[in-house]
Amino acid sequence: MKVLLVDDDPVFLELSKTFLEVFHDINSDTVESAGKALEKLDERSYDVVVSDYDMPCVDGISFLKIIRDKNPNFPSRSVRSLITGPMLRL
């Protein structure tokens, strides 16, 4: 399975990528913006796209709409939006 992780938080991206690889043996690519994600989607296909909701420039919902507009045959069940918030600071 090939997963694309999209989030403007590089720490969250690295943690998510490591978790998927170590615990589930799932390969993933990471990008820090919706624009870079669209470039990746033009280059290769993914089984699942996991996107942050709150990103600068394009939020997760708008990003999902852009993907569906550009790729009408892209399976809706393989695109997921993940809502993340600020990390807890102690």
Automatic annotation (TrEMBL):
Residues 2-90 form the Response regulatory domain. The keyword Membrane does not apply. The modification 4-aspartylphosphate is found at D52. SUPFAM superfamilies: CheY-like (SSF52172). One of its GO terms (biological process) is phosphorelay signal transduction system. Pfam families: Response_reg (PF00072). Signal peptide: none annotated. Keywords: Phosphoprotein. Coiled coil: none annotated. This is Response regulator receiver.
